[in-house]
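Justification of computing resources. Each target in the renewal requires a structure prediction run like the one illustrated here; the chain below, 164 residues long, is used simply to show the kind of job we budget for.
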Amino acid sequence: MKGTFFLASCCAAALAVAAPAHAAPYNFAITGSETIQFVLDSSPVPSSYDLGNYFRIDGASGTINGAAATFDLGFGSSTYFFNFGLFNSSAGLEIFSTGVSLYTGAEETPTFKLGTFALAPGYSVTISAVPEPTGWALMLTGFGALGAVIRRRRNMTVRVRYSG
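Resulting structure tokens:
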């Protein structure tokens, strides 16, 4: 009975300290002749936008082939001349795509889609959710509480009778 109460108390405490919901971080991994990675919020605040056409995110930090880099990113709607543009002047890198749009919603409040998408010939981008630290902490707390309940030993009295 004590173990059940302990487990319920741990769960209640974990829920009480859970962080409020917010935009989740998304990992962007672009593969092609270069490997490019950066992280953006699932619903970013654009640096600039034009309703019905595109939005920009300037100064995004990431890596090109493992080396630190800064990118200016452009995301266009299906009616615009490009759906994705990545610019890095120090590496002389520009990638454009006229494929499927990588986001939903209006350009002032976009939300990225998850999945793998074809970009310019020879490139593709995979957008995946990054696990949040609070989620990992809650999961580990739950496993720890469960382990403590399972491992708990009951006190037993052993009586030995000698018949002889």
